[in-house]
Amino acid sequence: MTKKERFQFVIDWFEKHAPNAETELMYDNPYQLLVAVILSAQCTDKRVNMTTPAIFEKYPDIPALSKATFDDLFPLIRSISYPNNKTKHLIGMANMVMEDFNGEIPETVPELVKLPGVGRKTANVITSVVHQQPNMAVDTHVFRVAARIGLTTNAKTPLQTELQLIKMIPEEKIYIAHHWLILHGRYICVARSPKCGECGLRPACKYYQQLIKAY
């Protein structure tokens, strides 16, 4: 199977079996999603979703969050990983949005990465989820799944993975392919003991073919 054929098989399978894949973070608007994604770094979506309602109740928008103090916001984030840094990031992010972007969440990756707590992965999530821009956020799940299946070759960094994926995936499908790969990695192609017996991608998966050869 050529790489092009492998990509086509994977895309066709996901389009049939996960046509409505989307983020598991709970949000109502770009502000809420940005807060949730900043909090989700090295933390589960489930934990973030348990934490954000109290934050959004007290700080319903960017202007409100920009006026938050560390001592007021920190208790709401205490159960999240790296709460000190993330508290500072959220307040800094809100202040920069107010001062540099007229209170509006930026809509491009180059602008978003200027915000405290926002790296390329977070910026790609925001732009792909909110605006369906053809950006591929690469987290540990995407990195692992893409390599195992054989969608990427010798990709050593998230950026290398991102560039290889967007080169082969049709532009209009990139935003949802991000969710396909994340959710597949979260529930099927898990880090330890991947559930190959439940996986419909076996015919196209290099990892699975190597398992067969091993036996």
Automatic annotation (TrEMBL):
Residues at which [4Fe-4S] cluster binds: C189, C196, C199, C205
Free-text comment on the cofactor: Binds 1 [4Fe-4S] cluster.
Domain (HhH-GPD): residue spans on this chain: 39-187
TM annotation in the entry: none
Keywords, sorted A to Z: 4Fe-4S, DNA damage, DNA repair, DNA-binding, Endonuclease, Glycosidase, Hydrolase, Iron, Iron-sulfur, Lyase, Metal-binding, Nuclease
GO biological process: base-excision repair, AP site formation
InterPro entries (alphabetical): DNA_glycosylase (IPR011257), Endonuclease3_FeS-loop_motif (IPR003651), Endouclease-III_FeS-bd_BS (IPR004035), HhH-GPD_domain (IPR003265), HhH_base_excis_C (IPR023170), HhH_motif (IPR000445), Nth (IPR005759)
Catalytic activity: 2'-deoxyribonucleotide-(2'-deoxyribose 5'-phosphate)-2'-deoxyribonucleotide-DNA = a 3'-end 2'-deoxyribonucleotide-(2,3-dehydro-2,3-deoxyribose 5'-phosphate)-DNA + a 5'-end 5'-phospho-2'-deoxyribonucleoside-DNA + H(+)
GO molecular function: 4 iron, 4 sulfur cluster binding; class I DNA-(apurinic or apyrimidinic site) endonuclease activity; DNA binding; DNA N-glycosylase activity; metal ion binding
Family per record: Belongs to the Nth/MutY family.
Name of this protein: Endonuclease III
Gene behind this protein: nth
